[in-house]
Fold this sequence. Notes:
Layout: H1 10-17, E1 26-28, H2 36-44, E2 48-50, H3 65-68, H4 71-81, H5 85-88, H6 95-111
Parallel strand pairs: 1-2
Amino acid sequence: MLLTEGQVSDYKGAALMLDALPKAKAMLGDRGYDADWLRNALIAKGITPCIPSKTNRKTPIPHDRVLYRQRHRIENMFGKLKDWRRIHTRYDRCAHTFFSAIAIAATVIFWL
């Protein structure tokens, strides 16, 4: 994925979000989040990382494959949210308003 000016990769964005993570048993992530510093930071917070190793890692780190398969539910939810034009195109510039639109869309999606 090519990034343009002003965009932040998910990998770098994860570093910014570490302090804001809620209590959780595990964190599901794709191969893009395979980094020793991220794994160590999650373990320090008491969160079990469920991240498959990148193919170029010399010694693969095992992960819970059964738990990782549940990640499709998260991906499906994001896909359904992007069906909402207001969210997909990010009409709302204010973060509070944008989050409110996501909450409304998620509620409607849940009830449908």
